[in-house]
Design goal:
By secondary structure, this protein is α+β, with helices and mostly antiparallel strands. Helices cover 28% and strands 33% of the residues.
């Protein structure tokens, strides 16, 4: 059984933005999307690693993916896939 790749309905580039902007942008994107839509978020603010999971838990959305990587300059970058509940 192979997993289907997830195609996000919306992509948010919040790189360089600090708390609370990434979560506020995610909140706006979720509000505009339909139930079941997937929002992909790219961030550089480490606080998103706890803010986004809490956002999902409190508002009933599913955090499908949370990953950390290094960009070409060895700076941490965060990527999330959130499915609207």
């Amino acid at each position: 059984m192979s997993e289907q790749p997830i195609t996000p309905s919306i992509q948010l580039n919040t790189r360089g933005l600090r708390c609370p902007e990434p979560v506020m942008m995610l909140h706006q994107a979720i509000r505009k999307s339909k139930s079941g839509d997937v929002v992909e978020v790219f961030a550089t603010d480490p606080s998103t690693s706890w803010d986004i999971p809490k956002f999902c838990m409190h508002l009933g959305h599913e955090l499908l993916l949370q990953e950390e990587s290094l960009d070409e300059n060895s700076h941490k970058e965060y990527r999330y896939l959130i499915q609207k509940g």
